[in-house]
Every structure is written in structure tokens, then in C-alpha cells.
């Protein structure tokens, strides 16, 4: 069975592919934006605590279920749940994951597609030209680019094409290969930009803002937002880590891998903040709180620098690379369902699912046209925003991922026995010294914390 499904070539392949899934628009776009909104320092600390207390334990749980069953989410929960309380109903958690993958990919690839356009504009020098006038760039982005339906569709389809192409060639030949090329490039670009930002006058202020906490600015809303974001950014709650975990061998330590992936993801998010806040601080541009700052403000700042075209281009390539390794994992969850459960070949499954999502995503691509309230384009936003794009985003980040994560924690913490889980975690690791702590977190802390998100969504609380 494992042979026909595919496997990573080894530990590194898995870590890179899973880290690629985790690092995405969530790190480079959403995290700097919410950190700015939640006043830096204290929020960053709370976020790190959420990653450690809830994110890492759930990631361990997902990878564990995947490796134990060597199946994607629907089959994995069905098999493990069949002789347990709840029985086959648990496969619903897998279906929720497939639905989440479908939904998120349909709008994520629209935004990811923008990076292709912006990279192109950077190479041709047009972006730097547009960005000499901040208002002009805002108008271009909101009025011209988003409102241009055919263009939105083309970039979205291009990005879906790249995603489908990678998944088509399989676990090792496609997904792992792309991650092995793009992630090192992504690290390299980040290091160049970090180095550059350390020479700007805004660098120290950025570090102070990020790393000196002021707890008086913290609200319950910030805590819930940090937790919700930890989920999205670590690709948890929809079985992406579970699916990737189903392709690893028994020689890999799951706790260590989960910790390393989460650490890398957090590091990259923090580096992205340092870069963006440094360059924004050192410019005299008044940063609007709009979440579209990545496409409107950043180029304006680069335009004031020497080599603006170069910095613009590598910046949008960076975001595009990060987004692609994430969209690949989103499609893999949906495709692997058809491969494992419907018995389709990888090629048939990938092409069919990729096309269906691409077509559905066209609705999202078109829903932004003429959207004058740019601040309402809020990836993984907490409020329901206008149009079908906003609805998809709202459903996925407020409902599908938290509910999925909640059920995964309940299943692994309460339905699977302690012996079954510890046995799996010891494979490739030896005695797992932190098992009791992990079990405590997965049984109590994670469900309660994620439950709090769900309750707050039900009560209709705005996060800020
Ligand atoms: N983790 C990705 C990001 O931070 O952008 C988004 C994501 C990818 C969420 C894959 C869920 C997923 F399964």
C-alpha cells in the first residue's frame, strides 16, 4: 500500500515539505498585519505560547494519526475510529478537512496569483514607477488590478496550474522536489532582506516593537486571535499534516519533527515582521491599517531605495514561493482523498480536483472587483467580509479549522488509548519523556483553548 501511495525520500524531505506547507501567506502577510494591530511584543509572546501549548501538541497528534494508518484524513479516521466509541462517524473529521482544503485553496490561490503579477511588474520596472505615488498605487491595486476580472482569473488559474503540476508528479517526484528547491531559495531571499533591513534606520524600533512586551495592551481578543492564527499558520485542523505524516517511515521521530516544523514556521514569521516593520519604520509613509499593505505600501517603500526593482522582485518571488508550497499541501489533502478512498490514480485525482477547485476559485477571483473597502480583504480574517471570497475565508478560518482541530484533539486525546499513542510516538524516537505533558495538553489544554475560539465565534465576538 505504502509503495503505491508514495513516501518521502527521508526525514529532510518530509520536514521541508511540511515546513513549506506551514510557511505561507499566513506568515508573510497575515502575521505582520495582526502583530501590528495587536501592538507587538506581548502579542508575539502570547502567540509563541499558543504555538507551544496548542500548535505543537496538535501537530504531533495529526502526524501520529497519519503515520499510524498510512492514509489520508477520511480513511485514517474511519480505520482508527471503527472499533471505538463514535465508530465510523469519526471519518466526518476527515471530510471536514477535505472541505476545508477545497475552500481555502479556492481563495488562497487568488491572492497567491497576485504575486505572479507583482513579480512581473517588478521585473519590468512598472511597479517601482507606480509606487512613486502611494495614492496612485492604491488606486492601481484596488481600482484597476482587482477590478480586472480576466486578469484575476488568469493569475489564479496560473497559480492553480503550478500547484496541480507539482501534486501531479507525486509525493517524492513533485511535492518534495518543489519544496527542496523553493524552501532554500525562500530562506536565502529572507536572509538577504533581513540583512538589508538591519541597515535601515527603522531596524531597532522594529526589534523593540516586536520583542519588548507591554502586557497592558493585551486583550482577550488578542489571545484568541493569536491562537486562531497559530492554527492557520501551522496548517492544522484540516489534515494537511496528517496527510504528509502518512508518507513518513517509522524511523522518524514525530515529536521532534513537529517541534522543528513549528520552530521554523515561527522563526520565519518573526523574520518577516522584522523586515517589514524595519522598512516601513524607516520610511516616512503613514502605514494604513489596511491588510493589503503588502501590495500597496511595501513597493512604495522599496521605491525610495536604490535597486528598487531587485528588492521588489525578490520580495514577491518570496511570497509566491511560500504560497506555492502551501497550496500544494491544500490540494494534496483533497487529491489524496480520491486516491485513497475512491481508488483513483494520482494523475486522475490531481487533474480532476485541481480543475474543480480552479473553476470554483474563479468565483472568488471575480468577487473582489470594484471592492472599494480594501481593508475588508482580510485573509483568515475574523469577520465575515464582503463577497464570496470573504465568505470562504470566514467559513474556513472561523469554523472548519477550529472545529477540525477540536475534534482531532478529542479523538487523539480521548478516543485513542494512551498505549496506542505512546507506542506510535516512540517509533523513531525512543522513550518520549514528555509524553505525559503532551497528553495533558492534547486532552485538556488544546480542546479548551480551541473550544474558546469556537464559542467566541458562535457568540459573534469581533476579535478587536
Ligand atoms: N499554513 C499556510 C499559511 O500560513 O499560509 C496556510 C495553510 C496551508 C493552511 C495548508 C492550512 C493548510 F492545510
Label this structure with key terms.
464 residues, mainly alpha, Amino acid/polyamine transporter I, 21 helices, binds 4-fluoro-L-phenylalanine
Your description of this structure?
It is a single chain. The chain has a single domain, classed as Amino acid/polyamine transporter I. Helix content is 75%, strand content 0%. It is built from 21 helices and no strands. Helix 4 (41-69) runs parallel beside helix 12 (220-233), helix 6 (91-123) crosses helix 18 (346-366) and helix 10 packs antiparallel against helix 17 (308-341). The chain is globular, with a radius of gyration of 21 Å. 4-fluoro-L-phenylalanine binds at residues 21-22, 24-27, 104, 232-233, 235, 238, 240, 326, 329-330.
Helical residue percent band: over 70%
Hetero groups in this structure are: 4-fluoro-L-phenylalanine
Mean pLDDT: 90
Major beta sheet, specifics? none
Radius of gyration, taken over Cα atoms and rounded to an integer in Å: 21 Å
Strand percentage: under 5%
The number of E-state strands comes to 0
* Helix-strand pattern: HHHHHHHHHHHHHHHHHHHHH
User: What coarse outline follows from CA principal-axis ratios?
Assistant: globular
Number of individual domains:
1
Extract low-pLDDT stretches: 371-376, 380-385
CATH class: Mainly Alpha
Q: From the 3D coordinates, which CATH architecture would you assign?
A: Up-down Bundle
Amino acid at each position: 500500500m505504502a509503495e503505491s501511495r508514495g513516501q518521502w525520500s527521508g526525514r529532510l524531505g518530509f520536514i521541508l515539505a511540511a515546513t513549506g506547507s506551514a510557511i505561507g501567506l499566513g506568515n508573510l502577510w497575515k502575521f505582520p498585519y495582526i502583530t501590528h494591530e495587536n501592538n507587538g511584543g506581548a502579542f508575539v509572546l502570547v502567540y509563541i505560547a499558543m504555538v507551544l501549548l496548542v500548535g505543537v501538541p496538535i501537530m504531533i497528534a495529526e502526524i501520529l494519526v497519519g503515520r499510524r494508518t498510512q492514509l489520508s484524513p477520511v480513511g485514517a479516521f474511519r480505520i482508527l475510529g471503527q472499533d471505538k466509541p463514535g465508530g465510523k462517524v469519526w471519518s466526518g473529521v476527515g471530510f471536514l478537512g477535505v472541505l476545508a482544503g477545497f475552500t481555502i485553496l479556492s481563495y488562497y490561490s487568488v491572492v497567491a496569483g497576485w504575486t505572479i503579477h507583482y513579480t512581473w511588474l517588478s521585473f519590468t520596472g512598472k511597479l517601482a514607477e507606480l509606487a512613486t505615488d502611494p495614492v496612485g498605487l492604491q488606486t492601481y491595486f484596488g481600482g484597476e488590478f482587482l477590478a480586472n476580472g480576466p486578469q484575476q482569473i488568469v493569475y489564479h488559474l496560473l497559480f492553480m496550474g503550478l500547484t496541480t503540476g507539482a501534486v501531479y508528479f507525486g509525493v517524492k517526484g513533485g511535492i518534495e522536489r518543489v519544496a527542496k528547491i523553493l524552501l532554500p531559495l525562500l530562506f536565502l531571499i529572507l536572509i538577504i532582506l533581513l540583512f538589508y533591513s538591519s541597515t535601515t534606520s527603522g531596524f531597532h524600533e522594529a526589534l523593540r516593537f516586536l520583542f519588548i512586551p507591554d502586557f497592558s495592551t493585551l486583550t482577550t481578543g488578542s489571545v484568541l486571535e493569536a491562537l486562531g492564527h497559530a492554527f492557520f499558520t501551522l496548517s492544522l485542523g484540516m489534515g494537511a499534516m496528517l496527510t504528509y505524516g502518512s508518507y513518513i517511515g517509522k524511523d522518524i521521530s514525530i515529536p521532534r519533527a513537529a517541534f522543528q516544523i513549528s520552530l521554523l514556521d515561527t522563526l520565519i514569521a518573526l523574520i518577516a515582521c522584522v523586515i517589514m516593520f524595519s522598512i516601513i519604520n524607516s520610511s516616512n509613509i503613514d502605514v494604513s491599517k489596511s491588510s493589503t499593505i503588502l501590495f500597496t505600501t511595501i513597493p512604495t517603500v522599496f521605491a525610495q531605495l536604490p535597486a528598487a526593482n531587485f528588492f521588489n522582485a525578490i520580495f514577491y518571488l518570496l511570497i509566491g514561493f511560500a504560497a506555492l508550497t502551501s497550496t500544494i499541501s491544500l490540494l494534496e489533502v483533497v487529491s489524496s482523498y480520491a486516491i485513497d478512498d475512491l481508488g483513483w490514480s494520482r494523475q486522475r485525482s490531481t487533474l480532476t480536483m485541481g480543475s474543480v477547485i480552479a473553476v470554483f476559485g474563479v468565483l472568488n477571483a471575480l468577487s473582489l472587483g470594484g471592492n472599494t473597502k480594501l481593508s475588508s480583504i482580510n485573509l483568515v480574517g475574523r469577520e465575515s467580509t464582503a463577497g464570496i471570497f470573504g465568505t470562504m475565508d470566514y467559513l474556513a478560518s472561523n469554523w472548519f479549522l477550529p472545529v477540525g482541530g477540536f475534534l482531532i484533539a478529542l479523538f487523539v486525546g480521548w478516543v485513542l488509548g494512551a498505549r496506542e499513542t505512546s507506542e506510535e510516538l516512540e517509533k523513531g524516537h525512543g522513550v518520549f519523556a514528555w509524553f505525559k505533558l503532551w497528553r495533558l495538553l492534547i486532552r485538556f489544554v488544546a480542546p479548551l483553548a480551541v473550544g474558546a475560539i469556537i464559542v467566541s465565534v458562535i457568540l459573534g465576538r469581533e476579535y478587536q
